Amino acid sequence: MARKYIAWSPIRALMAENGAKIVAREAVDYLVSYFTDICIEITQRAMILAKHAGRKKVNKADILLAIKNM
Fold first, then answer.
1. What residues does each domain of the chain span?
2. Which CATH architecture has domain 8-68?
3. CB neighbours of 32 closer than 8 A, spacing ≥ 6?
4. Contact of 62 with 56, CB cutoff 8 Å
5. Is the dihedral angle over the CA atoms 52, 55, 57, 61 positive or is it negative?
6. What are the tens digits of pLDDT across the range 6-56?
């Protein structure tokens, strides 16, 4: 079983605040899974950028550039 890093409740609350008052649990679960996959991809790209720059620490600029180049 995959470890969960993104909590279900805040995602559901965000959806409700934006008008989705009734949402199937499977829809929220899918969105959490999608966010997790995107976060992993962005992190991997940002790590490559940091390494290329001769750094071990991933910074905000690495994240922004990784997102921009997706």
1. 8-68
2. Orthogonal Bundle (1.10)
3. 4, 6, 8, 11
4. no
5. negative
6. 999 999 999 999 999 999 999 999 999 999 999 999 999 999 999 999 999
User: What are the residues whose beta carbons fall under 8 Å from the beta carbon of 8, sequence distance 6 or more?
Assistant: 28, 29, 32
pTM of the model: 0.85
Q: What is the pLDDT of residues 15-27, one digit of tens each?
A: 999 999 999 999 9
Q: Across the chain, how many H-helices and E-strands are there?
A: 3, 0
Give whole-number Cα distances, 56 to 37, 52, 62, in Å: 22, 10, 11
